[in-house]
Amino acid sequence: DVKVTQSSRYLVKRTGEKVFLECVQDMDHENMFWYRQDPGLGLRLIYFSYDVKMKEKGDIPEGYSVSREKKERFSLILESASTNQTSMYLCASSFPTFVQHDNNSPLHFGNGTRLTVT
Amino acid sequence: DQQVKQNSPSLSVQEGRISILNCDYTNSMFDYFLWYKKYPAEGPTFLISISSIKDKNEDGRFTVFLNKSAKHLSLHIVPSQPGDSAVYFCAASGSGIRQKLVFGQGTRLTINP
What we know:
The complex is a heterodimer. Chain A is an all-beta fold. Chain A has one domain (4-117): Immunoglobulins (Immunoglobulin-like, Sandwich), CATH 2.60.40.10. Chain A contains no helices and 11 strands. Chain B is mainly beta. Chain B has one domain (4-112): Immunoglobulin-like, CATH 2.60.40. Chain B is 0% helix and 53% strand. Chain B is built from no helices and 11 strands. The model of chain B has no long low-confidence stretch (mean pLDDT 94). Classes of the chains: A mainly beta, B mainly beta. The A-B interface holds A 4, 9, 31, 33, 35, 37, 40-45, 48, 50, 58, 90, 92, 96-98, 100-107, 109-112, 114 and B 4, 6, 9, 31-32, 34, 38, 41-46, 48-51, 54, 57, 59, 89, 91, 93, 95-106.
């Protein structure tokens, strides 16, 4: 069974703090993703990575950065947390190609980190 | 530019009846479509998928229909059960390597006893 583990379920941080969200997967997946979920906006892609030390911006990268020093670990960094970054953050991983067979999930998610910035 | 749209933020259905969730997409390069279900404080879990070579796929109580000409897909749940109450996300991607899933806004389904 694929396991994607996010280090914290709940975090409360102050405005201006530097925040690290950690994600580890145990399936040797090449691809890793960070999404945020907000009511009415769905899941929006922040950053993704196709390989170690490789990163690409998603749809909403502003205010975030990422680090992928090892294949199994993908970190999301909030350089200076702001209240509009209060959200549910979801990490996911996959193989390089989405296997397009019915009833087969290409993406495996962690349980999420609920971040509150005050 | 919202490439995947779920226009109904919420849906309420009686237990035992059919639930129909809808999704529209704009990108004609999408050829793989999925539905995920999410409970509060948990990550999304995969429900069912369909590739563009098909127009229907069934898995137990869940059926997904794809209308490529209308760029529309729908998820049918029959019969609906209280445990189906959750937020449902539609997602789409293209083919090949280095694809990413694009998600819709989600529809909150409530099944009433």
